[in-house]
Amino acid sequence: MTDYKDIWVFVEIKNADIRGVTFELLGKAKELAEKSDDKVCAVIIGKDGSRFCEALSYYDIDKLYLCENETLDDYLTETYTSLLIDLCKKYTPNILLFPATKIGRDLAPRIAATLETGLTADCIGLKIQDGNLVQTRSVYGGNYLVDIICPDRRPQITSVRPNVMEKSEPTEKNQPEIINFPLELDLNQLKTKVIEKIKTTTSDVKPIDEADIIVSGGRGIGSKENFEIIEELAEVLNAAVGASRASVDAGWVSKSCQVGQSGTVVCPNIYIACGISGTTQHLVGMKSSKIIIAINKDPNASIFEVCDYGIVGDFKVIVPLLTEAFRKKLSKY
Amino acid sequence: MRLIVCVKQVPESNDLKINENANRVLKDGVSTIINPFDQFVLEQAIKIKKEGDEIIAISIGDTETKSTLMRCLALGADRGILLEDEKFQGSDTFATSNILAAAIKKIGDYNIIFCGNSSFDTGTGQIGPELAAILDIPQVTFVESVENVENGMVKLKAQTDDGYKIIEAQLPLVIAGIPPSSFQSSIPPLPKILAARKKPFEVWKAEDIEGNKSKFGSEGSLIKIIKLYKPPKRDQGIIITDEPNTAVEKLIELLGKDKVI
Predict the structure, then answer these.
(1) Side-chain half-sphere of B248: how many Cα atoms within 13 Å?
(2) Quick one: B198 exposed, middle or buried, by C-beta within 10 A (0-12, 13-18, 19+)?
(3) Residue B37 belongs to what domain range?
(4) Is B125 in contact with A77 (Cβ distance < 8 A)?
(5) CA of A81: which chain B residue's CA is closest?
(6) Is the dihedral of CA A95, A101, A103, A109 positive or negative?
(7) How far is residue A52's CA from residue A49's CA, in Å, rounded to a whole number?
(8) H or E element: which one contains A281?
(9) A168: distance to nearest CA of chain B, Å?
(10) What are the pLDDT digits (tens) for B223-241?
(11) Hey, which residues 141-170 in chain B have their CB within 8 Å of chain A?
(12) Contact A119, B224 (CB under 8 A)
């Protein structure tokens, strides 16, 4: 196992930009590297991957594995798997970090099973202990945590929940060694193809799992028109709009806003829940937010059991007052 | 076509007790249900089933897991297979996928394998892709709908960060499905529950399936749980019940004082 060296970060590209979670992975990788003999490396796969090399040269990265190819514009399990498997076999990383995004959660288990090594998904904590990566994740709807190791196999593969780890700040520029890597896969052999992409959110909106603040509305909002009250508060706070399953179901907001078990698991700095009672399904998706603020007219709503601050009252009255108060407060800066 | 649906029995509530010394959850006497995402993919299989097609529900578990498979039969699966053996115990996702793959190879001639995108208890979301990797067939995850199947090709609608993608894939493949928000799981009516008892149901042991037995159970598991514990408790929140203007004023003051906003 001593042949396995270095900590690799998978760089996720979204809308021709590096997805923010990548810098959280780089931050964690740097911290882990200080406790081991490993160096931090990054893997860039994409149509024009080389344009990100400059941006990534401020993060103490030792090597950049780069695969640039016209056909890699869209994420496709088959092409990305083929590349990563070849890379891992040739350069034998000790640790491989993926973001626990839709792409990371599709790709990491495929890689792990092909290499016959262990994987821990959606981690919220990572540390090195006795030469092993201790990976912490939440189980049973957030009621318990588990610490997991992969003692006998390498690489140790992890997907990390966005918004949990601290972002790496850019430092002095270094010159990472760039290792170009070809896609050696007969494209005629591909068995899957993306034939259409449908966007339900405006393209420049940050993915909800990377939002710093989320203002979320539930069944209690009552109508699409009322949702504008939520959107207005979100706008003032420069926050993302979230929703419970009930409001997505009712067609008030798009599916990509949905927080919870069948939507996205989020972990923002501030989560403001309006008219959300707090079903188990929803709580699983937002319980680990750093600060939770709840507004609900039912004093017995379960959301009040997990919140840090709560107001018992009608959101139609409370939220506009809050919006006004924040507008005043934030304009002072 | 032969459609295989992998199902998992999960606790009805995640409010479980644990044995901290053994790093294990205590499941005795806990009421269980079919993992909701697994029921969703089963219903997708039923939706695309044509005359002459067969739907097989498989699950790893114990005698109690039979009830989950019986529910699948009542919902519309044609055949149930329970994989039950001491050698299967203590499996991580890799060992679980190896057991399922071995059973699926034994069933043979499969066209689509369905899994829930993740389970409500442990929620790793790894089985679909790991199973596909072991069987060396394509996978599509986060699938909300199977649009159609024609001439050995399937068209799928899968979630992305900002919407959906439509994917065309060759059979055989693994589909990991996640329900749209509008999905309401059906409850089988009594006559179908009764009819399910007459459908073929088998129990397979480790020796009944192909594959390398050392890849099953705790022996075949690659990860090790070193600690299972309660997360740190959140402090009791401050609940404000004043009239709206005062309440908002108080909240803003608290958020400022605590340096939140």
Answers:
(1) 17
(2) exposed
(3) 2-220
(4) no
(5) B133
(6) positive
(7) 6
(8) helix A280-286
(9) 22
(10) 999 999 999 888 889 999 9
(11) 141-142, 155, 159-170
(12) no
Cβ-contact A158, A95 below 8 angstroms: yes
How confident is the model over B48-105, as pLDDT tens digits?
999 999 999 999 999 999 999 999 999 999 999 999 999 999 999 999 999 999 999 9
Query: Which CATH number fits the domain that encloses residue B109?
Result: 3.40.50.620
Nearest-by-Cβ selection for A114 from B133, B159, B234: B133
B18–A144 CB contact, under 8 Å: yes
- Element (H or E) spanning A23, and its range? helix A21-34
pTM over 0.90: yes
B125 falls within a domain = yes
Q: Could you report the predicted ipTM of this complex, rounded to two decimals?
A: 0.95
Q: Number of structural domains, chain B?
A: 1
Domains in chain A: boundaries: 7-189, 208-331
Q: Is residue B254 a part of any domain in this protein?
A: no
Burial of A176 (0-12, 13-18, 19+ CB in 10 A): buried
pLDDT cut 90: percent of chain A above it: 86
Q: Are strands A119-129 and A291-296 parallel, antiparallel or unpaired?
A: unpaired
Structural fold of domain A7-189: Rossmann fold (3.40.50)
Contact criterion met (CB below 8 Å) for A123 and A157: no
Q: Do domains A7-189 and A208-331 have the same CATH topology?
A: yes
Question: How far apart are alpha carbons A51 and A61 in whole angstroms?
Answer: 16
A126 three-state secondary structure: strand
**Segment A131-136 mean pLDDT:** 97
Query: Has residue B34 been placed in a domain?
Result: yes
* pLDDT recorded at residue A208: 92
Residue B24 falls inside a structural domain: yes
Q: What's the CA angle centered on A82, arms A77 and A87, to 5 degrees?
A: 125
The answer as to CATH 3.40.50.1220 being correct for domain A208-331 is yes
Contacts of A148 in chain B (CB under 8 A): 223-226
Q: Which tokens sit at A256?
A: 């990509």
